[in-house]
Specification:
single chain, 492 residues, mainly alpha, Serine Threonine Protein Phosphatase 5, Tetratricopeptide repeat, 3 domains, two-stranded antiparallel ribbon, 6 strands, 53% helix, 5% strand, globular
């Protein structure tokens, strides 16, 4: 059996694929029914309807192993409307008790806060846009050293450049923002800022495609919302969106927050000993995790020589090995510039880190990474689009498609669909070993992200198709007639 088909990540995803939502959370079917009853399925939202988007964001966060209150915030994340969209399916002045009754106090508090803060200002203008790509790379390297020194040596230096900058932007006791409607001041703790960064990554990965690039004139691929093209026609040409550079930068800042919080907790625990108490006013009961495709953003900008990673459990380590298969030694939305064979082997144990778990360790030696380059992101997307848009009836099509897809993967190896298409190319050429390898990589990446990069097909559709390719590769068979293609579908 393929390792990815027996992987814990597929086990986690299978209830979503089968619609067995009660196995994920016994209340989930009734929560979705509530959203249906207030018309969420009738509201337009980017590449579909609002209900599907809400459920998808929940699914992504769940696959990233976020805490349940954070996942439920994702399920209801714009239910009171917010600074980006007017989708108040619940009245914030009268419906908070209703929502609280469904999702609980912790989740509803996050939902409400998410809906009343100026997200563009808080997340992008005041944090994300304050860092250059190079600065993020350097600060992630420095932060890893600082975290190791704190854990292993009890060394704490608040004057380090990365810590001073982060604390200047997102201080220990949080940031004050203005309520988008009343103008009153709201304190947002640093941990909640981290949660909202994570939800934003899930939110963008589910909804962004080529239409938003046209709408905001995102020609440089950095998604900084500088353009204003209101004549863009929805849904556009369906190209994959240029959102991954932004996601890698957002994830890098999330990672900095996680590390700073770890260092702060370590310092306080050493100082207070048995008298240490988590501070509720800082929301220290909220768990910050880095896992799966969240790591595909949160570890994206790392440029580090040695990394100590903690896994929550044995399943997490198993998924790490599966993810290494998919990324050939990469972790996250980052492009490796140097890699030794030893580092490649070590990388098999480098995914699903949890900031609180200390059960497993691994070292990644001489790994060099950088933020996914915006230009390379564009070049990769264009090569992919050329491969899928070319005339398949012309002689040499498979050879040209193979060349384009290999080029796409070289520049952006962190999305699954190019691997899926390349697997089909190899099947068509009866190169079954290579087809199986690419199908493995594509499947794991799609499972880790929880959302499709090429949104012309659903995530579930991509998963089903790549599993067909994986099965046919393993069987070393592929149809020679068109009716044989249409006869495919069963997966084991």
């Amino acid at each position: 059996m393929s390792s990815s088909l027996s992987s814990p990540v597929l086990k986690l995803a299978r209830p979503f694929l089968r619609g067995e939502l009660e196995k994920i959370n016994p209340k989930l079917p009734s929560l979705i029914a509530v959203l249906k009853s207030v018309g969420a399925g009738e509201c337009w939202h980017k590449h579909g309807n609002f209900l599907d988007h809400l459920v998808d964001v929940y699914k992504i966060l769940k696959l990233w192993k976020a805490p349940e209150p954070v996942c439920l915030c994702g399920l209801f994340h714009s239910a009171y409307s917010n600074s980006y969209v007017n989708l108040a399916i619940f009245d914030p002045s009268t419906g908070r008790d209703v929502v609280r009754g469904h999702v609980g106090e912790a989740a509803e508090s996050l939902v409400h806060l998410f809906c009343v803060i100026p997200r563009q200002t808080l997340i992008h203008d005041d944090v994300l846009f304050k860092y250059s790509d190079l600065e993020l790379v350097e600060h992630l390297e420095l932060s890893e050293v600082s975290l190791r020194n704190a854990k292993e040596k009890g060394v704490f230096d608040g004057e380090e450049v990365w810590r001073k900058k982060l604390n200047g932007l997102v201080p220990e006791n949080g940031v004050v923002v203005k309520h988008i409607k009343t103008g009153e001041e709201i304190l947002v703790s640093r941990r909640v800022v981290g949660v909202f960064l994570l939800i934003t990554m899930a939110d963008f990965s589910d909804q962004f495609f080529g239409f938003q690039d046209e709408l905001f004139c995102n020609n440089d691929g950095r998604l900084e919302f500088r353009g204003n093209n209101v004549t863009a026609l929805w849904p556009g040409n369906g190209k994959p969106g240029l959102w991954m550079n932004s996601s890698s930068r957002t994830g890098a800042i999330y990672s900095l927050i996680v590390r700073e919080e770890e260092i702060l907790m370590e310092q306080r625990k050493r100082g207070y000993g048995s008298e240490f108490v988590a501070r509720k006013e800082r929301d220290e009961d909220i768990e910050l995790v880095v896992s799966a495709a969240a790591a595909a953003s949160a570890a994206a900008a790392a440029s580090m020589r040695t990394v100590v990673v903690r896994f929550a459990d044995a399943d997490a380590a198993a998924d790490a090995a599966a993810y290494h298969i998919a990324t050939a030694g990469f972790i996250g939305v980052s492009r490796m510039t140097q890699r030794s064979d030893a580092a490649a082997a070590a990388a098999k144990l480098a995914l699903f880190p949890s900031v609180h778990a200390l059960s497993s360790y691994a070292s990644l030696v001489d790994h060099k990474r950088k933020v996914l380059d915006a230009k390379e992101q564009i070049e990769a997307r264009d090569m992919y689009w050329e491969a899928v848009s070319s005339d398949a009836s012309k002689e040499g099509y498979l050879e040209r498609a193979e060349k384009m897809l290999l080029g796409c993967i070289e520049k952006n190896p962190f999305v699954g669909e190019p691997h899926v298409l390349l697997s089909q190319v190899y099947l068509g050429k009866k190169r079954f070993v290579e087809a199986e390898r690419e199908a493995e990589r594509g499947l794991v990446l799609l499972l880790q992200w929880g959302s499709p990069w090429d949104k012309r097909m659903s995530w579930e559709g991509w998963i089903a198709w790549v599993r067909v390719l994986l099965m046919k590769s393993s069987d070393q068979s592929w149809p020679d007639v068109s009716w044989g293609i249409l006869n495919l579908g069963l997966v084991r």
